[in-house]
Amino acid sequence: MTDQKPSVLFVCVHNAGRSQMAAGWLRHLAGDRIEVRSAGSMPAEQINPVAVAAMHEVGIDITAEQPKILTTDAVQDSDVVVTMGCGDACPFFPGTRYEDWKLDDPAGQGIDAVRLIRDEIKARVEALITELLGSPEPGRPEGGNR
Prior knowledge:
alpha/beta; Arsenate reductase ArsC
């Protein structure tokens, strides 16, 4: 990586659940060390209220977020593009890293199921932060419990 902070784009069809939770986790855990985006190919009217509730339980407020349309510019401007196991096809740009996280869709599921998805997303986001920055938390040395 260069001195410029890395950017990550989370993509799912409706940009209402998985991608919003992932963006919330990344903002919470990485602070301003990583630029965070999320989008969908067919954005919903609003974020899934059960996803909002599940994130609120862990102290992360995503209520102000709105589903956004996926654009070619958003993909091109991102270092890492993460699709959320929903079959979304993104434009391909050389030099951009692509990952597909196979995750259950929280749409129509109860809070217990969404909590499991939320927690799996957190683990994946922590691993991504470590790959990009070397430390999952601001001010914490790599691998350190200091």
